[in-house]
Specification:
By secondary structure, this protein is α+β, with helices and mostly antiparallel strands. Helices cover about 50% and strands about 10% of the residues. The protein is built from 13 helices and 10 strands. It has helices spanning about 35-60, 90-95, 95-130, 135-140, 145-150, 170-190, 230-245, 265-280, 280-290, 300-305, 310-320, 325-340, 360-370; strands at about 5-10, 15-20, 75-80, 85, 210-215, 220-225, 250-255, 340-345, 345-350, 350-355. The strands form 3 sheets. Strands 5-7-6-9-10 form a 5-stranded mixed sheet. It has a 3-stranded antiparallel sheet with strand order 1-2-8, with helices on one face. Helix 8 (about 265-280) runs antiparallel to helix 9 (about 280-290). The longest helix is centred in the first third of the chain and has 35 residues, at about 95-130. The chain starts with 6 loop residues before the first strand and ends with a helix.
Length: about 375
């Protein structure tokens, strides 16, 4: 069995982050022989592709295949297996979500680089206009009342050194003055940014199941792949409740289990929630599990059931039976097919949003989807 895992997806080198818990990767198993065979075939396919690329690099001879497609074509043949072609489109479809997340990181890197370049150009232009060096420009700005207010300093920096000369700004002061000066320059300069944004692709996600909230005909469906032991999933619960308040019956929420490594209580929590669902209390039990979540410890499932007034013998019998494990495994298998690697992962009308993102990110996607809906 597979449970959920390590936390914190922050890259210190790039600053990119998804507040999420690591989930299982392709290759994780949940007991079914069919799943193992499927994963084995994918591994074999991966090895074939590696051998293909290695053959090109080392031997300099192409893997014998059909006539090459035009460069960049999605239908380009990248391998053949006993005469059967494997196209670039097939490969990209298999890793569509990870490729999208890489594209998002690329976009963030470009955005950061662009903002840094704009900042440098603004400072250089201002220093040139005043005929001073950049350090002199910052020293001059430090004595400005307006810049000091923007930098949240109590007064202009006018400290003197022991020999009576003005002391240089220290590191934190210089950073604050620099940022405040840039804010002032941006306000007085026509800066237009036209870097194109990344449009989230649409994934075919199953929206059926008993664990859903909201009308079936709602124009927005949010499918959440989550783990009761993941702290970032707990943050996602608050976001979804706020969205329900903001959008009402225009959204429908579907819950899916996605258990990753190192969360030993996640599987039984998922089973307990489904057992509560048999008595019509899935969402109430769902909320209690997240509300009572504690790092490194589990729950008293029977006590939670008692709080909700569930019939104890039926709940205990359900929990002992393990009858929901196949359904939990089915959720996991679908998540793996979609390329999910962490929780929470949301699909808003099929468009992915990974991690405990701020409310504004959800609203932007939802409002865009609502704008696409035909007027009734």
């Amino acid at each position: 069995m597979v449970q959920n895992g390590s936390q914190g997806r922050l890259s210190r080198n790039t600053g990119f982050s998804w507040a999420s818990c690591y989930g299982p990767r392709r290759g994780s198993t949940f007991g079914s022989m069919e799943k193992r065979v499927t994963l084995f075939l994918r591994i074999i396919l991966g090895l074939v592709l590696i051998a293909f690329v290695g053959g090109l690099t080392i031997a300099g001879q192409p893997f014998k295949a059909a006539q090459p497609e035009p460069t960049g074509s999605k239908d380009a043949v990248v391998a053949t297996i006993d005469g059967q072609s494997v196209t670039l489109r097939e490969i990209e479809k298999n890793v569509a979500l990870p490729l999208y997340l890489l594209e998002v990181q690329r976009q963030q890197l470009l955005q950061q680089a662009l903002q840094s370049l704009i900042d440098e150009r603004l400072l250089e232009a201002e220093a040139s206009r005043k005929g001073v060096t950049l350090p002199q420009l910052l020293e001059e700005a430090s004595q400005s009342e307006s810049i000091s207010r923007l930098a949240n300093l109590p007064a202009p920096v006018k400290r003197l050194s022991p020999v009576g000369q003005q002391a240089a700004l220290d590191g934190p002061e210089q950073a604050r003055i620099r940022q405040a000066l840039l804010i002032s320059l941006r306000r007085s300069t026509d800066v237009h940014v036209s870097l194109p944004s990344v449009v989230p692709p649409v994934f075919a996600v199953d929206t059926n199941g008993d664990r859903r909230m909201g009308p079936d005909r709602a124009p927005i469906t949010i499918v959440e792949f989550s783990d009761f032991q993941c702290p970032y999933c707990r943050q996602g619960v608050k976001i979804l409740k706020t969205l329900r308040q903001l959008y009402g019956d225009r959204i429908r929420i579907v819950y899916r289990d996605y258990l990753g490594p190192n969360h030993p209580y996640a599987l039984q929590a998922a089973e307990a929630a489904r057992c509560a669902g048999e008595q019509g209390k899935f969402w109430e039990y769902h909320d209690l599990l997240f509300d009572r979540q504690s790092t490194g410890t589990g729950w008293d499932f029977r006590l939670l059931a008692k709080e909700l007034g569930l019939q104890p013998s039926a709940f205990d019998s359900c929990l002992r039976s393990g009858r929901f494990r196949d359904q939990i495994a089915k959720d996991l298998h679908e998540g793996l097919k979609l390329g999910i690697t962490s929780t929470p992962t949301f699909f808003i009308n099929g468009r992915p949003l990974v991690g405990a993102q701020p409310l504004s990110r959800f609203q932007a996607l939802i409002d865009t989807e609502l704008a696409r809906q035909p007027l009734s």
